[in-house]
Amino acid sequence: MEIMSRLTNVVKETSESGMDSCPDDIGTVEEVPEDTILSRQTSVNLVPFIGQRFVSQDAAYEFYCSFAKQCGFSIRRHRTRGKDGVGRGITRRDFTCHRGGYPQIKASDDGKLQRNRKSSRCGCQAYMRIVKRADFDVPEWRITGFSNIHNHELLKSNEVQLLPAYCTMSADEKSRICMYAKAGMSVRQMLRLMELEKGVKLGCLPFTEIDVRNLLQSFRNVNRDNDAIDLLEMCKCKKDNDPNFKYNFHIDANKRLEQIAWSYASSIQSYEAFGDSIIFDTTHRLDAYDMILGIWIGVDNHGTNCFFGCVLLRDENTESFSWALKTFLEFMDGKAPETILTDQNMWLKEAISVEMPRTKHAFCIWHIIAKFSDWFSVPLGSQYDKWKAEFLRLYGLQSVEDFEVGWRDMVDAYGVHGNKHIISLFALRTFWALPYLRCYFFAGMTSTFQSESINAYIQRVLSAQSLDNFVEQVAAAVEFKEPGPRQKMQRKVHKISLKTGSPIESHAATVLTPYAFSKLQEELVLAPQYASLMVDETYFIVRIHTDMDGGCKVIWIPHDEFISCSCCLFEFSGILCRHVLRVLSTNNCFHIPDRYLPVRWRDVSTSLTKPFQTFTSEEHAEKVQLLQSMVSTLLTESVETEERLDVACDQVADVLSRIKEFPRPGHGCDDIGYNSPPDSLILPEVEDSDGFVHGFADGNSHEITLGKMKERRLRDGMNTFRKRRRCSVPCCGQYGHDATDCPMMEGGDLNGDGLGFL
Predict the structure, then answer these.
(1) DSSP of 690-725, one letter per residue?
(2) Is 12 inside a domain boundary?
(3) pLDDT in tens, 678-687
(4) Cα 93 vs. chain centroid, distance in angstroms?
(5) I need a labelling partner for 518 at 20 to 30 A (CA). Which of 303, 360, 411, 747 fits?
(6) Angle at CA 651, nearest 5°, toward 646 and 654?
């Protein structure tokens, strides 16, 4: 209180000194030519130029906003090319002057009064255009168009700050205002103190007294004394309605909520299947309540972000993070993830080492790269882009030795020996550099391409602003785009496209989800560009066909169905690499061993996770393959309409009831795991790149158009599936007919090709 009293006295004395409002520093900007305006900038880095790069749209927007403020105008987001969540997402963005375009005339309804408010738009042509590029597999935004020619007067420095775009407060400023309000300071005292802290003249803050009063009113609208009670009551109510909902909390001696964490039943179920690799994001705060928001998220088998849990923490320290991690493990029955990605937070790093000692901890690379502009653009100057490209090259290297040698060469070449950020990055290299992380599974979440989708997912959670309804709002946000079973089945049916004609590709297409299959397919397409050189029976060197040395080392033991590559792509992502696929194809292996099609990337409907009882393995395998094909066709046809799906569910339920009436086999039978033999694959139909549907039986390929596939319809209100008969005629052996109607028997000709449509 003594310090605050002294601080208040200083504010009063300063306020009574009679300082005038800030003079006009810029003058009449509109009367000078454009090149003079640009030359007056305090830093050349504030002048947009063609080819300038940014890590994100937001970074480009903030940069252009700073430039516009110095020139005397504000900006707004204009046209885009592309759409979030569709294809490649947004690939182009235009920012224009706030007076660009013309006002739209709104049709007025009869009898309704319209506000006669004049628009400020006058068709100004000033703009900045950015386009998304992906050099070195890292997405960046570059300026491709820029014009600073205005057809209106530009504002003076003391006028431009009154534009709505600049009447904003940062998170730090809101936190300070909240702190000052708790200390009992008046609004004018707050403004004067912040002017002194920032070194600006009276009235030159980017917000006004009215903005501060509105902010304080929004704080008062929240009954802070009842925050904890209301939130805990909501959690208790949800727990009563859903016994699988879990939550935990801690309240201090003053009955103030210190920590609270919760997880939904669906989140716990998702974690059981996809909790091997997770992200714990703690980079956001709820400013109105002065609490850190932590979110646990992961990636499911369809490459979709899934929500695992949420936590609110009053303090950012090791003790708080330890409580959060311990509570999360309690929610998940003590199951710790194999790997966890976080921000570069040392308190969190220490907490993870204690609470999850067997979990590999790594830093999100996109959080690190986002700081490069602030860290290195000034000391490196014009060499910044070249240095960044070299950093990304080192980041993606295969071996630790190459990385460390290359890092030393990079430090010497750019003279950054004493840079504190370079020293820190190298000291923590095992937490972010891929050569140190490739032997751990991260489900593809280290890719910078995942950053935008993950950030968009987190923003959905952040859209919940009211703490007393926060739990329900988060639930609604994370469930907004969760696909149901029908959407997942339709996604599998319609998006698989064969490109190589390889039996390996066909086999994988029936097991993996479309997301995982697309990743494997990328490797399959590139595999023919590599040469496979046998060193001995189990050791191969695989390298690009134009290289004379180097390459990856592949170990393959056929009788054990064991294969491994030095690039560690399978260990890192769960997807076989092009080097392994090249060795398999050149050695006449036509299917991927079951262990290298991980359950976490499989389509749930086609995953075979349990061994089957068998009497004669060959006969049993054929029947299982036949059942697989029929089930896949059932799914394909059933999801076409709601009526088909209802009939299919009813009929399958009846069939299961009948099956369960039969006695189970005795324990004397051998248990074997089913693996598809390469010479007798029967695959459900998948679409190739030419629009045909392929089926495979005994190694022979048959084509059926998609139109013929859809000609199968319901009969008498229910789906009927004919038993697939196998022909016993020699040299035929096809499914779909028997010896009585075999096409090879027509005219007594047994020398035909025996091919027929299924």
Answers:
(1) TSEEEEEETTEEEEEEHHHHTT---BTTB-------
(2) no
(3) 333 333 344 4
(4) 21
(5) 360
(6) 130
What contacts 409, CB < 8 A, 6 or more positions away?
Answer: none
Angle in degrees, CA 646, 650, 653, rounded to 5 = 140
Tokens at 64, concatenated: 């252009």
Model confidence at 550: pLDDT above 60: yes
Q: Average pLDDT, stretch 401-427?
A: 94
In this structure, which amino acid lies at residue 49? F
Domain enclosing residue 414, as ranges: 365-431
Same domain, 96 and 157: yes
Neighbouring residues of 434: CB distance < 8 A, sequence distance ≥ 6: 395, 396, 397, 446
User: Same structural domain for residues 509 and 542?
Assistant: yes
- Look-up of token digits 């004379």: 548
**How many domains are contained in the chain?**
5
**How confident is the model over 478-536, as pLDDT tens digits?**
654 445 554 554 454 445 678 888 889 988 998 999 999 999 999 999 999 999 999 99
| Diameter over CA atoms, the chain | 115
> What is the rounded CA–CA span in Å between residue 758 and residue 752?
17
Q: At what angle do helices 187-198 and 209-220 cross, to 10 degrees?
A: 120
755 within some domain: no
CA angle 301, 305, 306 (to 5 degrees): 85
Q: Which of 720, 727, 722, 718 is nearest to 746 (CA)?
A: 727
Beta bridge partners of 634: none
The whole model's pTM is what? 0.57
In a domain, 633, yes or no: no
Side-chain half-sphere CA neighbours of 190 within 13 A: 24
- Mean of pLDDT values over 286-305: 83
| Residue position matching structure tokens 């989800």 | 513
Cα–Cα distances in angstroms (integers) from residue 223 to residues 258, 302, 465, 466, in the given order: 16, 42, 14, 11
Look-up of token digits 């750019």:
414
